[in-house]
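Annotated sample (chain length 180).
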Amino acid sequence: MKDLREPPPSTLFVQLFAKHQSGLHSFIGSLVPTKADADDVLQETSLALWKKWPDYDVTRDFFRWACGIAHIEVVRHRRKAATDRLWFNEELIEVLSFEMIENSDLFDMRRDALESCLKKLPQDDRNVLELRYQGGMSVEGVADSFGKTSRTIHRTFARIRRLLFQCITASIRNSSGLGA
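Output written by the structure step:
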């Protein structure tokens, strides 16, 4: 017998989806080989979420629910693209999905810490990162933009990654009350 309760309002869906879209994209991106695949699966997932929205139980965690549906969409997408050898097998996708969902709070903390730590970087370092990751520029292109060698830019990225790792680790340690 169908539950006779009112379906959740569509405005709630829009709010929850907007809040968790980035995390959902990251979740999917960890399970598929390319950004294009992640984008495609996110689109399919958003449609599936919308279709299933009337049955959503508002007492449940939206992100976990959405990740469960995204996991199904990843498996469907994988089956469609089964000839691509870059795909993980379904058992590994299952394990990774479970781990991502179980650790979603930690991932949120890391993402928040990353945003904060990026703001603490010197402007030149942020410019290098923006060209590479937001602008999609190759390391060689970044090197040319700054009048540096590719080797120098590779060392710059290694230094920035080390700084970000240390900052994120310290931030999470401090926010979890573990101290330094």
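Annotation: The two ends are 55 Å apart (CA to CA).
Annotation: The mean pLDDT is 84.
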